[in-house]
Design brief:
With 505 residues, this protein is mostly beta strands. It is built from five helices and 35 strands. Strands 5, 6, 7, 8, 9, 10, 11, 12, 13, 14 and 23 form an eleven-stranded antiparallel beta sheet that branches. The chain is elongated, with a radius of gyration of 37 Å.
């Protein structure tokens, strides 16, 4: 079974070396040919390593962050939530065009909640169909003054050819409008046509119809109405408390960070809503705040394509996040809502086809606080191999602990059905004494501790059949959890382990 990563940060220090020592039983096979009773003193471990050494060797503590000063943080996050422009605006609908005179103004309502100024088009087409009852060849020029490209007005030319029957028809299908800009400051489009017969007469056609189809934009400019939209509905798993059995832990300055990356070119405010923590006991604790809304940075007109970042923190000064953490949450459920144009201004803004608003919520837990009897349990697979010609062993373990944490440990060796075969200690044993700290919680002096473990031959034979080990570790900070301490990646742990091995023929 694989324990959660954040538990490994705590349990790895206090267990992996014991596993290493246990596995050293196999190394004594080199003396298996000795045919007389004897006792040998064998050094097994002489190791000094820092938290940083362990982290580097493991290399897979995804939730752990270490700053340039060695300060450590456990960060729990959901995935980035994207709100693309397609989700906000949707597609441009087809626009039907009907002209009963040489000049017509066609109302255009492309998007709800948006007073458009202009659309820069990256694809799409225009189509026209002409009908005439004049028995004469006619040349028709259609222009749209508000649709321009490189300063030139859109224009297309068609010929109605009289071939002895009426009405005369002609069409222009799927004329490309890529790269054109449509001016919509009047919320309408004026379409003109000029129909001139071969004899030079200007006529009015029976009917001109058309459509604007499959339009896609690369830039939209306008004034957004005030509106709300959902940015995220998500949750954060907090596995630190997933295997919590007992005790208390308190973080000095936990924070819930709401980070927004925004390339929408208009004001947006963000609100954290309905945030609820689920504890390991199944209780629900609402996150209460003194203000849950904040404005996010956004690019200006001359910054199109840029992404602006904003981070807002809910901490012990503006929320009950510290109380929530003290209760041992295993999950935090939340909603994030956005409000466009929160002050209901008439200032123009923009969106590009690549505009996005991304949100990320992170629970930040600094390794600074107190713990009192904080007990966790996890299970790991083991294979101790064969134990031969050993009459018994006594292990001596000397620890010199530079971490400000007392650690009590018990290992239960289990068979393939998780039945307990034996335990490492008769009862939970203190194996690390907390280092002393100053008034700021920084380590001052390490603490040495000596432990002896007697393992008879009968116990060895029992333990060698173990397929897994259940680890119970209890942690308390300096002064029985009454002093807030700082755990830093530079803090070191020294372990020396030796064994007296009794051999038999």
């Amino acid at each position: 079974m694989r324990s959660p990563k954040t538990l490994l940060i705590l349990s790895f220090l206090t267990t992996v070396l014991f596993f290493s020592a246990c596995k050293k039983f196999e190394d004594v096979k080199v003396v298996e040919d000795v045919n007389y009773e004897a006792e040998f003193a064998i050094p097994l471990i002489n190791s000094k390593l820092s938290l940083q050494d362990i982290i580097d060797s493991e290399g897979d503590f995804e939730e752990l962050e270490i700053d340039e000063n060695g300060n450590m943080f456990l960060n729990y996050s959901a995935e980035f939530e994207h709100n693309t422009v397609d989700e906000l605006l949707g597609e441009i609908p087809s626009i039907p065009l009907v002209l009963t005179d040489t000049t017509m103004t066609v109302p255009v309502q492309v998007f709800d909640n948006l007073e458009l100024n202009s659309i820069s088009l990256k694809s799409g087409t225009l189509s026209f169909s002409l009908h005439s009852s004049i028995a004469e060849n006619t040349n028709v020029t259609i222009t749209i003054p508000q649709l321009t490209k490189d300063g030139l007005t859109f224009s297309t030319n068609l010929d109605l050819i009289y071939q002895g029957t009426l009405p005369i028809t002609a069409s222009a299908d799927q004329l490309p409008i890529e790269g054109y800009i449509l001016d919509l400051t009047e919320n309408s489009v004026q379409i003109n046509y000029e129909a001139v017969t071969n004899s030079g007469d200007h006529i009015v056609l029976d009917l001109v119809t058309g459509s604007a189809d499959d339009w896609n934009y690369e830039l939209v400019e306008g004034i957004w109405d005030q509106q709300t939209f959902t940015i995220s509905n998500d949750s954060i798993e907090v596995d630190l408390f997933g295997n919590w059995l007992d005790g208390e832990v308190s973080f000095e300055d936990p924070r819930l960070a709401v980070r927004v990356e925004n390339s929408y070119g208009f004001p947006v405010s963000v609100q954290l809503k309905n945030a609820v923590a689920i504890t390991s006991a199944g209780n629900e604790i609402p996150l209460t705040t003194t203000g849950n809304s904040f404005d996010v940075n956004y690019p200006l007109m001359n910054e199109q394509g840029e992404m602006k970042s904003t981070t807002f923190y809910f901490d012990k000064n503006n929320s009950n996040i510290k109380d929530i953490l003290n209760a041992g949450p295993t999950k935090l459920i939340y909603e994030i809502e956005g409000t466009i144009n929160p002050e209901d201004l008439n200032d123009p803004g923009f969106l590009t086809d690549q505009s996005d608003l991304m949100s990320l919520v992170t629970l930040e837990l600094p390794a600074y606080g107190t713990a009192s009897g904080f007990t966790i349990e996890t299970t790991a697979d083991i294979d101790l191999g064969e134990i031969e010609n050993i009459n018994g062993a006594e292990f001596k373990i000397i620890t010199d602990n530079g971490l400000p944490i007392d650690v009590y440990l018990q290992l239960y060796f289990q068979d393939e059905n998780e039945n307990i075969l034996d335990s490492l200690f008769h009862q939970s044993q203190a194996i690390l004494g907390a280092a002393s700290v100053d008034t700021q919680g920084n380590t001052v002096n390490s603490t040495e501790m000596v432990n002896y473990i007697d393992v008879s031959k009968e116990r060895m034979l029992m333990i060698q059949n173990a397929k897994s080990v259940k680890i119970q570790a209890s942690f308390s900070t300096t002064n029985d959890g009454n002093t807030s301490v700082i755990v830093n990646s530079s803090q070191e742990l020294e372990i020396r382990m030796g064994a007296k091995i009794g051999l038999e023929d």
